[in-house]
Amino acid sequence: MLDEGDDAPTVTAEDQGGETLTLDFEAPTVLYFYPRDDTPGCTIEAKGFDAELAAYDEAGVAVYGVSTDDAASHREFREKYGLDVDLLADPEGEVAAAFDVDTSGGAAERVTFVLADGTVRAAYGGVSPDGHAESVLDDIRASGLLPEE
Description:
By secondary structure, this protein is an alpha/beta fold. It is built from 5 helices and 7 strands. The protein has helices spanning 40-51, 53-59, 71-81, 94-98, 132-143, and strands at residues 11-15, 20-23, 29-33, 62-67, 86-89, 111-116, 119-124. A 7-stranded mixed beta sheet has the order 2-1-5-4-3-6-7. It is globular and about 40 Å long. It comes from Halarchaeum rubridurum.
């Protein structure tokens, strides 16, 4: 997977609503990869990012979840749990490949990237879903990436 200091690729993917987004990661962004919609660990992680979404928004940090599920699956997942976090569909694994995230088992491994100014600012492998969203936000605040309040 890409590591801190690596250039962030520009990626294009469809969100849960079918809108095609192109992300260049100039603005502070968290991109978290997860294996599958509506599985126990992935649901915990998505709910965690969703619970912290207002704090991320307030800090000026965009958040996107990415899996190899399609947009319709993402839409159903969001509706089932009342999630607001944006989910990007990567059924061909192109976004995962751009970040060198393993999809050899047919699903993305659970990793998270913090990106800004077109650069990987932090990379988290072997992520435990519970409490991860809070930890990443705390790390972003401690990193000096955000302007002083």
